[in-house]
Amino acid sequence: MNRTRHDLAPKLRRAMIDLLNASLVDAVDLWNHAKGAHWNVRGPAFIAVHELFDKVAGQAEQFADDLAERSVALGGVAAADARIQAKFSHLPPLPEGTLRQARALQAVADSLAEFGRRVRKAIDVADEAGDAGTADLFTQISRETDKLLWFIEAHEER
Ligand SMILES: [Fe+2]
Question: What is the pLDDT of residue 97?
Fold first, then answer.
């Protein structure tokens, strides 16, 4: 860890850095999935879903940036290597090839749901550990993720 004047105990910061990096890896993978769907989707509502997936990607990028910077602020190092990210992501894989609209929506919804589930668990872990700042960041991300999941699922209705 890097030296810092931060007053939280090093052991606690270490645990939070690991928690933040685990979520960072998932957020980067969420960005990949959203961009993959943005690029490869085809269907009658192409423009709507193409733009919606880009909105998810933009949010995922912001989540990743916030998680990485919180990790570094606590004296850690952000997981920035694509090989590490690919190895440790918890998200289900995005189907390869051209994605029909319904399949793309389903895949991104599945990724958002798993990302959100893990972020919600991380809120409690950070809270119980005594790091209100990290718990607050996870809470913000959780709320935004819930909203994105709603946006995607609303497009799945027929
Ligand atoms: Fe684009």
Answer: 96
Q: How far is CA 104 from CA 4, 96, 125, 133, in A?
A: 44, 10, 32, 34
Cα 58 to Cα 144: distance, rounded to the nearest angstrom:
12
> Would you kindly state where each structural domain of the chain is located, as residue ranges?
10-89+98-156
User: For residue range 28-56, what is the model confidence (pLDDT) as tens digits?
Assistant: 999 999 999 999 999 999 999 999 999 99
- φ, ψ for residue 99 (rounded to 5)? -115, 120
CA of 77 to the centre of ligand 1 (A): 30
The architecture CATH gives domain 10-89+98-156: Up-down Bundle (1.20)
Residue with tokens 């769907």: 37
* CA 45 to ligand 1 centroid distance, Å: 16
Q: What is the mean pLDDT of residues 95-122?
A: 97
Check residue 85 and give its pLDDT: 84
- Find the 87 Cα to ligand 1 centroid distance in Å: 26
